[in-house]
């Protein structure tokens, strides 16, 4: 989805986390909740950098600026949701079939959401799949 100013807005979900990415022309900066992504922990930073590195290899340029707002869920879910929203935004921004295929071949979860959710608890049980302990005698 794009607006009048030339920004493209995409979203990504992972478990309870929802991320909304806005991409526009710029100098290659990526902000998550108004903080530079480079301030994240090392593993999280690498997860966010994956679509950026692929874009640099395939398109040869990073002439965009991305702002991601993420809420809900835990830290890992938020990172995965942000990564999904970022990759979708980049794919929509460049409109390159080659870039989209490369992102999908690298990791399918870069463009396609993981729809698994937590299973509901059942009445009378302690957990979703656990059965009540029964006495044999």
Q: What is the beta-strand fraction?
A: 15-25%
Total count of strands: 5
* Strand/helix succession: EEEEHEHH
Low-confidence stretches: none
Return Rg in Å.
19 Å
How are the strands ordered across the major sheet?
1-2-5-3-4
Number of DSSP helices?
3
User: What is the average of the pLDDT values?
Assistant: 90
For this structure, what is the CATH class? Alpha Beta
Shape, please?
elongated
As an assembly, this protein is: single chain
The CATH topology, please? Answer: Ribosomal Protein S5, domain 2
**Approximate helicity band:** 25-40%
How far is the N terminus from the C terminus? 64 Å
Give the count of structural domains. Answer: 1
Computed structural class: alpha+beta
Largest sheet, described in full?
A: 5 strands, mixed
Question: What's the layout of helices and strands?
Answer:
Layout: E1 8-14, E2 17-25, E3 30-32, E4 35-36, H1 42-59, E5 64-71, H2 75-94, H3 97-106
Parallel strand pairs: 3-5
Antiparallel strand pairs: 1-2, 2-5, 3-4
Helix pairs in contact: 1-2, 1-3
Describe the fold and architecture.
- This protein is α+β, with helices and mostly antiparallel strands and 137 residues long.
- 35% of the residues lie in helices and 21% in strands.
- It has a single domain, classed as Ribosomal Protein S5, domain 2.
- A hairpin with a 2-residue loop joins strand 1 (8-14) and strand 2.
- Helix 1 runs parallel beside helix 2 (75-94) and helix 1 (42-59) runs antiparallel to helix 3 (97-106).
């Amino acid at each position: 989805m794009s607006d009048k100013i030339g920004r493209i807005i995409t979203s990504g979900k992972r478990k309870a986390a929802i991320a909304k990415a806005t991409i526009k022309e710029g100098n290659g900066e990526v902000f998550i909740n108004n903080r530079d992504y480079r301030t994240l922990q090392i593993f999280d930073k690498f997860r966010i950098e994956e679509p950026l590195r692929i874009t640099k290899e395939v398109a040869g340029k990073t002439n965009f600026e991305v702002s991601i707002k993420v809420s809900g869920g835990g830290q890992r879910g938020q990172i995965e949701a942000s990564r999904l929203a970022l990759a979708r935004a980049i794919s929509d921004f460049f409109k390159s079939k080659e870039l989209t295929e490369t992102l999908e071949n690298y990791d399918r979860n870069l463009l396609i959401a993981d729809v698994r959710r937590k299973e509901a608890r059942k009445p009378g049980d302690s957990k979703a799949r656990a059965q009540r302990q029964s006495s044999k005698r």
